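REVIEWER CHECKLIST
Item 1: Sequence provided? yes
Item 2: Single chain? yes
Item 3: Sequence as submitted:
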Amino acid sequence: MNPLKVILASGSPRRRQFLQALGLPHVVRTAEIDETPRGEESAPELAQRLAREKALAVAQRTPEEERPVVVIGADTVVALGDTVLGKPAAPEEAVEMLRDLRQEPHVVHSAIALVRMEPGGAYHIESRLNSTRVLMRDYTDQEIARYVATGDPLD
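Item 4: Structure as written out by the authors:
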Protein backbone atom coordinates (compact mmCIF):
# COMPACT_ATOMS: atom_id res chain seq x y z
CA MET A 1 0.00 0.00 0.00
CA ASN A 2 1.31 3.43 -0.93
CA PRO A 3 1.57 6.12 1.74
CA LEU A 4 -1.15 8.73 1.59
CA LYS A 5 -0.04 11.72 -0.48
CA VAL A 6 -0.36 15.14 1.16
CA ILE A 7 -0.92 18.28 -0.90
CA LEU A 8 -0.69 21.80 0.49
CA ALA A 9 -3.18 24.04 -1.33
CA SER A 10 -1.19 27.19 -0.63
CA GLY A 11 1.80 29.05 -1.97
CA SER A 12 2.50 30.53 1.47
CA PRO A 13 6.14 30.08 2.52
CA ARG A 14 5.02 29.98 6.18
CA ARG A 15 2.62 27.11 5.60
CA ARG A 16 5.31 25.16 3.71
CA GLN A 17 7.76 25.79 6.56
CA PHE A 18 5.20 24.56 9.08
CA LEU A 19 4.71 21.23 7.27
CA GLN A 20 8.47 20.87 6.79
CA ALA A 21 9.03 21.48 10.51
CA LEU A 22 6.56 18.67 11.22
CA GLY A 23 8.53 16.42 8.89
CA LEU A 24 5.43 15.88 6.76
CA PRO A 25 6.28 15.11 3.13
CA HIS A 26 4.04 17.11 0.82
CA VAL A 27 3.72 18.79 -2.53
CA VAL A 28 2.41 22.29 -3.16
CA ARG A 29 -0.43 23.04 -5.57
CA THR A 30 -2.01 26.44 -5.34
CA ALA A 31 -5.73 27.03 -5.71
CA GLU A 32 -7.10 29.78 -7.90
CA ILE A 33 -10.27 30.90 -6.12
CA ASP A 34 -12.13 34.18 -5.70
CA GLU A 35 -11.15 35.50 -2.27
CA THR A 36 -13.64 38.37 -2.29
CA PRO A 37 -15.84 38.50 0.82
CA ARG A 38 -19.49 37.68 0.10
CA GLY A 39 -22.24 40.01 1.28
CA GLU A 40 -22.41 40.12 5.04
CA GLU A 41 -19.78 37.37 5.49
CA SER A 42 -17.92 37.84 8.78
CA ALA A 43 -14.14 37.56 9.09
CA PRO A 44 -14.26 34.07 10.67
CA GLU A 45 -16.76 32.89 8.05
CA LEU A 46 -14.51 34.22 5.30
CA ALA A 47 -11.42 32.46 6.68
CA GLN A 48 -13.30 29.17 6.95
CA ARG A 49 -14.82 29.41 3.48
CA LEU A 50 -11.51 30.26 1.83
CA ALA A 51 -9.67 27.41 3.57
CA ARG A 52 -12.37 24.94 2.50
CA GLU A 53 -12.59 26.25 -1.07
CA LYS A 54 -8.81 26.13 -1.53
CA ALA A 55 -8.57 22.56 -0.28
CA LEU A 56 -11.57 21.38 -2.27
CA ALA A 57 -10.47 23.10 -5.50
CA VAL A 58 -7.08 21.38 -5.40
CA ALA A 59 -8.56 18.03 -4.32
CA GLN A 60 -11.04 18.03 -7.19
CA ARG A 61 -8.37 18.63 -9.80
CA THR A 62 -6.08 15.92 -8.40
CA PRO A 63 -5.72 13.19 -11.02
CA GLU A 64 -7.51 9.93 -10.27
CA GLU A 65 -4.23 7.97 -10.22
CA GLU A 66 -2.94 10.13 -7.31
CA ARG A 67 -5.93 9.36 -5.10
CA PRO A 68 -6.52 8.81 -2.25
CA VAL A 69 -4.96 12.09 -1.22
CA VAL A 70 -5.24 14.57 1.65
CA VAL A 71 -5.31 18.24 0.68
CA ILE A 72 -4.67 20.94 3.27
CA GLY A 73 -6.14 24.39 2.71
CA ALA A 74 -5.65 27.31 5.07
CA ASP A 75 -6.44 30.98 5.28
CA THR A 76 -5.92 33.82 7.71
CA VAL A 77 -8.12 36.90 7.94
CA VAL A 78 -7.51 39.93 10.14
CA ALA A 79 -10.43 41.96 11.46
CA LEU A 80 -10.18 45.42 12.98
CA GLY A 81 -13.58 45.88 14.55
CA ASP A 82 -16.10 45.01 11.84
CA THR A 83 -13.61 45.72 9.05
CA VAL A 84 -12.02 42.75 7.30
CA LEU A 85 -8.48 43.59 6.24
CA GLY A 86 -7.31 41.93 3.06
CA LYS A 87 -3.77 40.94 2.23
CA PRO A 88 -1.79 44.07 1.33
CA ALA A 89 -1.09 44.24 -2.40
CA ALA A 90 1.91 46.57 -2.14
CA PRO A 91 4.48 47.58 0.48
CA GLU A 92 2.82 50.99 0.91
CA GLU A 93 -0.47 49.29 1.70
CA ALA A 94 1.27 47.03 4.25
CA VAL A 95 2.80 50.06 5.97
CA GLU A 96 -0.59 51.77 6.20
CA MET A 97 -2.28 48.63 7.51
CA LEU A 98 0.36 48.07 10.19
CA ARG A 99 0.09 51.71 11.26
CA ASP A 100 -3.67 51.23 11.65
CA LEU A 101 -3.18 48.04 13.69
CA ARG A 102 -0.61 49.30 16.17
CA GLN A 103 -2.09 49.72 19.62
CA GLU A 104 -5.54 48.76 18.28
CA PRO A 105 -7.04 45.45 19.42
CA HIS A 106 -7.75 43.27 16.40
CA VAL A 107 -8.56 39.62 15.81
CA VAL A 108 -6.63 37.17 13.65
CA HIS A 109 -8.85 34.34 12.36
CA SER A 110 -6.93 31.30 11.09
CA ALA A 111 -8.78 28.44 9.43
CA ILE A 112 -7.59 25.08 8.20
CA ALA A 113 -9.44 22.54 6.10
CA LEU A 114 -8.45 18.98 5.24
CA VAL A 115 -10.05 17.17 2.33
CA ARG A 116 -9.54 13.46 1.85
CA MET A 117 -10.28 12.81 -1.81
CA GLU A 118 -10.96 9.19 -2.72
CA PRO A 119 -10.75 7.47 -6.09
CA GLY A 120 -14.01 8.06 -7.92
CA GLY A 121 -14.48 11.55 -6.47
CA ALA A 122 -15.95 10.83 -3.04
CA TYR A 123 -14.49 13.08 -0.38
CA HIS A 124 -14.63 13.96 3.30
CA ILE A 125 -13.82 17.42 4.62
CA GLU A 126 -12.95 18.62 8.12
CA SER A 127 -12.19 22.18 9.11
CA ARG A 128 -11.27 24.15 12.19
CA LEU A 129 -10.99 27.82 13.10
CA ASN A 130 -8.84 29.56 15.68
CA SER A 131 -9.40 33.22 16.55
CA THR A 132 -6.81 35.18 18.50
CA ARG A 133 -7.17 38.69 19.89
CA VAL A 134 -3.98 40.64 19.22
CA LEU A 135 -2.69 43.95 20.52
CA MET A 136 0.49 45.15 18.85
CA ARG A 137 2.71 47.56 20.67
CA ASP A 138 3.19 51.06 19.31
CA TYR A 139 5.81 50.23 16.68
CA THR A 140 7.67 53.20 15.25
CA ASP A 141 7.32 54.04 11.58
CA GLN A 142 10.95 52.98 11.14
CA GLU A 143 10.29 49.55 12.69
CA ILE A 144 7.27 49.09 10.45
CA ALA A 145 9.28 50.11 7.37
CA ARG A 146 12.06 47.62 8.24
CA TYR A 147 9.52 44.82 8.73
CA VAL A 148 7.73 45.58 5.46
CA ALA A 149 11.11 45.62 3.68
CA THR A 150 11.54 41.92 4.59
CA GLY A 151 8.58 41.10 2.32
CA ASP A 152 6.87 39.04 5.04
CA PRO A 153 3.64 41.10 5.14
CA LEU A 154 3.10 40.50 1.42
CA ASP A 155 3.28 36.68 1.35
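Item 5: Key structural point noted by reviewer: DSSP finds four helices and six strands in the chain.
Item 6: Recommendation: ____
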